């Protein structure tokens, strides 16, 4: 499950969590495959390893899946033409479970007694291994190594007659954080986990007739590009069923307190998206303002680590009154798969992605603003680069609390022993990355920036387990006794 971080050339891992996956679905569009490809382009930031589309033309399902980016797979008109139909689902993948091989690329498809069924999944099932063993003992033959295939087999062995009832039967057996879109002969379906950890929204093609033109997507940024308007968030624990009769809502789970992933606001979501009613760009600026109030330091210039640190740095600069400057320039043409033949080239690799803007930095007291520190490797190289450009002081400010725990809910993170904040104090971390000072926004400051008074320890508004160790969903695959495992995790933190 743990994979080395290959964002840019740093094979030792960078200072960001890996992206999640992105899902998209459309009902009743004359160019469903092309529209889905556009939606996946808008969601490319959520997964860059592989992509796929499944369509249904009223009689047959059609599929195209491939490794690489959306543009690598769906820019060819012949590929789009091979995917006829007015309904489709699509997926962008970043692997949290399973290898990056074609058989793991989604959407997954299967032929059942009731017809065809395709599913695209964002998130992680925390009892997938236990379910996998039980299903194999029952004779199920798995074709992939991704946890998403568990859904397919649970639906296959269900004794219920309708596809929706079989899906509900499967959902009641899985544990985890997930959003998914699924496609059958009769309907497009969208689902969120009972706590709403992973996002999913409902939109409608502008100008569409009353019974058509519906969209499901991970983020609102996928709506504008396809000419759709936002209708609402799919609610936690809700199944949205879209068919020729319209949109129907099913709520098979007991209502539970919501725990939306707070890291969506910090890093994962695209800045122009709106998550759970909160504009991501504005939220990131407010986090930067909180960070400046909590940990201001005398400086000459505020510099973001691009691109994810830009909105928070703007907020920091506005609150502190210190000028905002682009002291680091990002090269947007660096791919994700760079081969480093020697240690020397590998150590120079960060310069492929970031370059120091020397006139802005030379002789200055610099505050670098970034969204997170995971292993600390890239932060160290960024600090070294800024010092080499002539900065007199380098202070690092982070728009998230210290990342002290791994995520088991769909974000690919290192094991806890490799997280810098789990091993060192903040002062020790500052020495590790070579900064004159280091500070993180507090957990209460983060909550204030998101419109809450502070974090309610008894009933947190978000899933913030990567910062607090408070895991809201059991982790059966992490031990034989999930309650005992959660207790151990709590004791560690």
Molecular structure report:
By secondary structure, the protein is an alpha+beta fold. The chain folds into two domains: 22-261, Glutamine Phosphoribosylpyrophosphate, subunit 1, domain 1 (4-Layer Sandwich), CATH 3.60.20.10; 279-492, Rossmann fold (3-Layer(aba) Sandwich), CATH 3.40.50.2020. It contains 19 helices and 23 strands. The chain has a seven-stranded antiparallel β-sheet with strand order 3-2-4-1-10-9-11. Strands 5-6-7-8-12-13 form a six-stranded antiparallel β-sheet. Strands 17-20-21-22 form a four-stranded parallel β-sheet, sandwiched between helices. Helix 5 crosses helix 6 (163-171), helix 9 (280-295) packs across helix 10 and helix 9 (280-295) packs across helix 17. It is globular and about 70 Å long. It starts with 21 loop residues before the first strand and ends with a helix.
Observed structural traits:
493 residues, alpha+beta, globular, Glutamine Phosphoribosylpyrophosphate, subunit 1, domain 1, 2 domains, disordered N terminus, single chain, Rossmann fold, 24% strand
What's the structural blueprint in terms of helices and strands?
Layout: E1 22-27, H1 32-42, E2 50-56, E3 61-67, H2 70-74, H3 77-81, E4 87-93, E5 108-112, E6 115-125, H4 128-137, H5 149-157, H6 163-171, E7 176-184, E8 188-192, E9 201-205, E10 214-217, H7 221-224, E11 228-233, E12 239-243, E13 246-250, E14 260-261, H8 263-268, E15 274-275, E16 278-279, H9 280-295, E17 301-304, H10 310-320, E18 328-330, H11 343-348, H12 350-353, E19 354-356, H13 358-361, E20 365-370, H14 377-388, E21 393-398, H15 420-423, H16 426-433, E22 437-440, H17 443-449, E23 462-463, H18 465-468, H19 482-492
């Amino acid at each position: 499950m743990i994979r080395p971080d290959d964002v840019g050339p740093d094979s030792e891992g960078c200072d960001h969590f890996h992206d999640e996956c992105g899902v998209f679905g459309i009902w009743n569009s004359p160019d469903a495959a092309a529209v889905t490809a556009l939606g996946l382009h808008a969601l490319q930031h959520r997964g860059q390893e592989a992509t796929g589309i499944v369509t249904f033309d009223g009689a047959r399902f059609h599929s195209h899946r491939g490794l690489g980016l959306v543009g690598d797979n769906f820019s060819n008109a012949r590929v789009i033409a091979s995917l006829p139909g007015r309904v489709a689902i699509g997926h962008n993948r970043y692997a949290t479970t399973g290898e990056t091989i074609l058989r793991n690329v989604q959407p997954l498809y299967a032929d059942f007694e009731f017809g065809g069924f395709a599913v695209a999944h964002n998130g992680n099932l925390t009892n997938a291994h236990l379910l996998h063993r039980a299903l194999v003992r029952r004779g199920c033959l798995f074709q992939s190594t991704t946890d998403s295939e568990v859904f397919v087999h649970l639906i296959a062995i269900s004794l219920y007659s309708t596809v929706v009832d079989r899906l509900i039967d499967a959902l009641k057996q899985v544990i985890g954080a997930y959003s998914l879109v699924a496609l059958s002969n009769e309907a497009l379906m969208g689902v969120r986990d009972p706590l709403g950890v992973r996002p999913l929204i409902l939109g409608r093609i502008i100008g569409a007739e009353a019974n058509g033109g519906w969209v499901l997507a991970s983020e609102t940024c996928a709506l504008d590009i396809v000419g759709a308007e936002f209708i609402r968030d799919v609610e936690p624990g809700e199944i949205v069923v879209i068919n020729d009769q319209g949109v129907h809502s099913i709520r098979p789970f007991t209502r539970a307190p919501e725990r939306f992933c707070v890291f969506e606001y910090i890093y994962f979501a695209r800045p122009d998206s709106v998550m759970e009613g909160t504009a991501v760009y504005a939220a990131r600026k407010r986090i930067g303002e909180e960070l400046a109030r909590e940990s201001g330091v005398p400086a000459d210039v505020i510099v973001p680590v691009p691109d994810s640190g830009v909105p928070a740095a703007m907020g920091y600069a506005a609150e502190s009154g210190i000028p905002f400057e682009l002291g680091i320039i990002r090269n947007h043409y660096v791919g994700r798969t760079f081969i480093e033949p020697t240690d020397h080239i590998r150590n120079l690799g960060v310069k492929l992605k970031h370059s120091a803007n020397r006139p802005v930095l030379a002789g200055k007291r610099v505050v670098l603003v970034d969204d997170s520190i995971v292993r600390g490797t890239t932060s160290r190289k960024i600090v070294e680069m800024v010092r080499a450009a002539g900065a007199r002081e380098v202070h690092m400010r982070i728009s998230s609390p210290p990342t002290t725990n791994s995520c088991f809910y769909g974000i690919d993170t290192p094991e806890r022993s490799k997280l810098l904040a789990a091993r060192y104090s903040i002062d020790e971390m500052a020495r590790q990355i070579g900064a004159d000072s280091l500070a993180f926004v507090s957990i209460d400051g983060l909550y204030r920036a998101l419109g809450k008074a502070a974090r309610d320890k008894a009933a947190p508004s978000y899933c913030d387990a990567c910062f607090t160790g408070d895991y809201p969903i059991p982790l059966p695959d992490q031990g034989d006794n999930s309650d005992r495992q959660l207790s151990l995790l709590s004791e560690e933190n």
